[in-house]
Amino acid sequence: MQRRAFLGGIAAIAATGLAGCSATTNSSYFASAYAGMSDGEYTLPKIPVSKVPAEFRRQVVDYDTPHRPGTIIVDTPNRHLYLVQEDGKALRYGIGVGRDGFRWSGTARVGWKRKWPTWTPPEPMIRRQPELAKYRGGMEPGLHNPLGARALYLMRGGRDTGYRLHGTPQWQSIGKAVSSGCIRLMNQDVVDLYNRVEPGAKVVVLQG
After folding, report:
1. Taking 70 as the threshold, does the pLDDT of residue 93 lie above it?
2. Which residue segments constitute the domains of the chain, with CATH numbers given?
3. Per mean pLDDT, which range of 15-19, 116-120, 137-141, 167-171 is the poorest?
4. Which residues contact 112 (CB under 8 A, 6 or more apart)?
5. Which residues are marked as active site?
6. If you average pLDDT over residues 128-133, what whole number do you get?
7. If you compute the radius of gyration of the chain from its CA atoms, what whole number of angstroms results?
8. Which three-class secondary structure string do you get for the chain?
9. For the chain, what is the mean pLDDT?
10. Distance CA 129, CA 143 (A)
11. Whether the Cβ atoms of residue 137 and residue 155 lie closer than 8 Å to each other
12. How far apart are the C-alpha atoms of 78 and 97, rounded to whole Å?
């Protein structure tokens, strides 16, 4: 699918998008959120949370938005993903975003979601990185899989956009622009998000 077809003008999004976010409402960050955890046949390693900037740790914040609870809002410039809650709150997660030339904006829906997904690099990526051709048939799930522990697949107009919200074993990449357009979260965070979001949830991606 041509990604250009998915790109939305930011002016159209701004009209209904982010309305504002205030200071965090809690000073403690889910103390055990980043501990090692058993997950099926895999064990997610502990994340050294002291090395993760506080702004990118999962936390509850005050959040002023016209979007309904259950909506996911991706604030690309600030490297945050918000899951809108009731009563003017949101769960905020730190994210890694697409590097220059691979960023996108617009609205989509969560089409489906997978635990420990298989990663299949798209053909344009294989052309850029021929060494990935060995994964053309898919890379098996696991602790080193680029999609991490969970993936939420984004649809628009009944078609797969090619973009995902997914985990990553590279927690150091959170807060940076390194991906080929997908939105990545720390594995413990994507497990938490996965458990809170159902297929059909609205996703709004903002670039400015």
Report:
1. yes
2. 3-206 (2.40.440.10)
3. 15-19
4. 152, 153, 199
5. 166, 182
6. 75
7. 16
8. CCHHHHCCCHHHHHCCCCCCEEEECCCCCCCCCCCCEEECCEEECCCCHHHCCHHHCCEEEEECCCCCCCCEEEECCCCEEEEECCCCEEEEEECEEECCCCCCCEEEEEEEEEECCCECCCHHHHHHCHHHHHHCCCECCCCCCCCCCEEEEEEECCEEEEEEEEEECCHHHCCCEEECCCEEEEHHHHHHHHHHCCCCCEEEEECC
9. 82
10. 22
11. no
12. 10
pTM summary value: 0.82
- Closest listed residue to residue 179, CA positions, set 72, 102, 119, 82: 102
More confident residue, 57 or 32: 57
Please give the pLDDT value at position 1.
40
Residues in the chain, overall count: 208
CA–CA gap between residue 203 and residue 152 (Å, rounded)? 11
